[in-house]
Amino acid sequence: MLQQGRVAFGQMDAVSFGRPAAGAVADEVAGLGAERVLLMVSGTLNRETDEIEKLRHALGNKCVGTFDRMRPHTPRGDVIAAAGAVRAADADTIVTLGGGSITDAAKAVRLCLANEIDTPEGMDRFRPVAGPDGALAAPPCAPPTIRQISVPTTLSAGDFSGLAGVTDERVQAKEIFRHPGMMPSAVVLDPAVTVHTPEWLWTSTGIRALDHCVEGVCAKEAHAYGDAQALRGLSLLARGLPGVKLDPKDLAARLDCQMGMWLSMGPLASGVPMGASHGIGYVLGAMFDVPHGHTSCIMLPAVMRWNKLVNADRQALVAAAMGRPDEDAGDVLDAFIGGLGMPRSLTAVGIGPDKFQRIAEGAMGTPWVPRNPRPIPSPAEVLEILKLAA
After folding, report:
1. Strand order across the 147-152 sheet
2. Mapping DSSP to helix (H, G, I), strand (E, B) and coil, where does residue 179 land?
3. Do 224 and 186 have their domain in common?
4. Which of 8, 17, 81, 263 has the highest CB neighbour number within 10 Å of its CB?
5. pLDDT by residue, tens only, the chain of 390 residues
6. Do 332 and 320 meet the contact criterion of CB atoms below 8 Å apart?
7. First CA to last CA across the chain, in angstroms?
């Protein structure tokens, strides 16, 4: 049967890489014709480094405020607080500098502002709805009008999508909001600003990017366009992450990681779904506050081993891209993650078998577990994967 698909190109205008962030951001702001810029940034970077001040200086009087109070996993309450700051400053552009929680928050803030949402409960309106074909899509809503320029300091890669993961504190569940207009206008990849990122965070989010590559290549819906980007991204991450661990000041290795992160979004951006590693990871993050990078470190090898029954040929592509052809991809990933000093089991992050049923039931409600290449019709199959990751 002839393969079918559709690649929808995003609304991003530019990606700048290898240049100092402050100057590159100022150029992107000028190119957008923006006049009132609010910074949404890491509180740690704002307090302990001069990176945010460099941005303020480069933007001059166009900088109209700073919000630096976003917590991990992007809680709804913090999104609404940030939206209030943007509204009060009458900003026309948001510049983010920080990790994935901040990037996603700005995307959600822009959607809230366009739709006059000013309470956490009001964000219920953004939950995806099923279309005639059963696929989830954005509900009818006004598109964002405020622009976003993103300067990532981790490797989570949310900067390259029209999706935002936001945690509903009422039920401790992370939800995916989506709208094509949520994608940032520009991304600036500056390896120099990432030297402040803690090693565990840099490395674990690098495994998250690697997870994007792997699950994209191994998906039932994988296609040549996504494969080309994901497999090259995988090879860059496989080289760059150990390079940074060996020498944290190696900016070339850091840029390899950033370019690999960018390419890792090729499958997802072109319609290829993620699988059980991402889906179970959402639950581990929202329910138990496990950093999302660590969730990939723990779950990806287990998911690969469980899935091998149906996609051994695709998994072979992963092992080859990582320089280990003819070896088992799950074993290759497990050894790679362990060599970087990352946690490799649920026990290592304090999650025992008594939590497995709750995790399994929660995972069934995520967008990705139902799209796993090996079917997962019930929580029982999730339990099998959790036992492999125990």
Report:
1. 14-17, 186-189, 147-152, 93-98, 37-41, 63-67
2. coil
3. no
4. 263
5. 788 888 888 889 999 999 999 999 999 999 999 999 999 999 999 999 999 999 999 999 999 999 999 999 899 999 999 999 999 999 999 999 999 999 999 999 999 999 999 999 999 999 888 777 667 778 889 999 999 999 999 999 999 999 899 999 998 888 889 898 999 999 999 999 999 999 999 999 999 999 999 999 999 999 999 999 999 999 999 999 999 999 999 999 999 999 999 999 999 888 899 999 999 999 998 889 899 899 999 999 999 999 999 999 999 999 999 999 999 999 999 999 999 999 999 999 999 999 999 999 999 999 899 999 999 999 999 999 999 999
6. no
7. 39
Residues 179 and 162: beta-carbon distance below 8 Å: yes
Range of the domain at 139: 14-192
User: Would residue 124 count as lying in a domain?
Assistant: yes
The pTM is what?
0.93
CATH of the domain at 277: 1.20.1090.10
Q: Check whether residue 20 and residue 146 sit in a common domain.
A: yes
Using CA of residue 86, residue 187, residue 264, residue 240, what is the dihedral sign? Answer: negative
Q: Report d(CA 281, CA 294) in Å as an integer.
A: 9
Q: Which residues fall within 8 angstroms of residue 325, CB to CB, at 6 or more apart?
A: 316, 319
Q: Do 153 and 136 share a domain, yes or no? A: yes
The residues facing 40 across adjacent strands are 67, 96
